[in-house]
Amino acid sequence: MRISTMAKTWLAALALAAGSSAWAGVQVTFDKPDDYSDVPFSSRDREQVLAGLANHFTWLGKSLPPGQDLRIEITDVDLAGREDPSRRGAFDVRVMTGRADWPRLRLRYTLEQHGKVIASGNAYLSDMSYLQHINRYSSNDALRYEKRMIDDWFKNTFGVRPQGRSSPVMSLQPREVQRR
C-alpha cells in the first residue's frame, strides 16, 4: 500500500500534536490539509508548518488553568506572504508585500473543564497589518506572523497571555519582505 506525501505529512503533524497534547491538555487536528488555501509547495516544509502550528497551540495550552482541556481543529491555513513560483529553485521563496497577503487561520475549538464544555466556537483569525506590528518572535522563525496572530486570539479568547516563546520553525526558507 502506498501512502501519499501529504498523508504522511498530516499523520506526522497529528502524531506530534497527539504526543505533546496528552501532557499539555491540548489536542490539535487538521481537517483536510490538502485543501488549505496556502501551505508550502514542498512536502517537507508543509509538514514543518503543520507541526509548528500544532506545537505552538500546545505550548499556549500550557498556560491554561489546571483541569482545562482544549481541542482545536484547524480547517484552513493561509500563511503570511505568497510563494513566488518564478523564484523557486532549491527552496521555495515566500514574498510579503503587506497587501492582501496577510496570515489567516480558520479553526473550531472546544475548551472543557473537568469534562464540561465551558467555551466552544468557530474562529477566523487574521492580521491585515501583520508587517506593522512589533513581533516578539525571531525573524528566523518562519511562522512568526502566524504565531503572533494566534497569541492575540488565545489571549482574547481565553484570557491567557503567553509567557516566553514557543520553539521556532527555522528550517523553512526565510521570507522576503517587499515594501512599496
How would you describe this structure to a colleague?
- This protein has helices spanning 5-24, 43-61, 144-158, and strands at residues 26-30, 68-78, 82-83, 94-96, 104-113, 116-126, 176-177.
- It has a four-stranded mixed beta sheet with strand order 1-2-5-6. A three-stranded mixed beta sheet has the order 3-4-7, with no helix packed on it.
- The protein is of the alpha/beta class and 180 residues long.
- It has one domain.
- 34% of the residues are buried.
Summarize the structure.
With 180 residues, the chain is of the alpha/beta class.
Helical percentage: 25-40%
Head-to-tail CA distance between termini: 50 Å
Mean pLDDT: 79
Q: Ranges with pLDDT <50 over ≥5 residues?
A: 16-24
Number of helices: 3
How do the strands of the widest beta sheet line up side by side?
1-2-5-6
* Domain tally: 1
- What fraction of the residues are assigned to beta strands by DSSP? 15-25%
Largest sheet: 4 strands, mixed
H-E order: HEHEEEEEHE
Question: Tell me, what's the shape?
Answer: globular
Structural class by SSE content: alpha/beta
Q: What does the radius of gyration come to?
A: 16 Å
Number of strands: 7
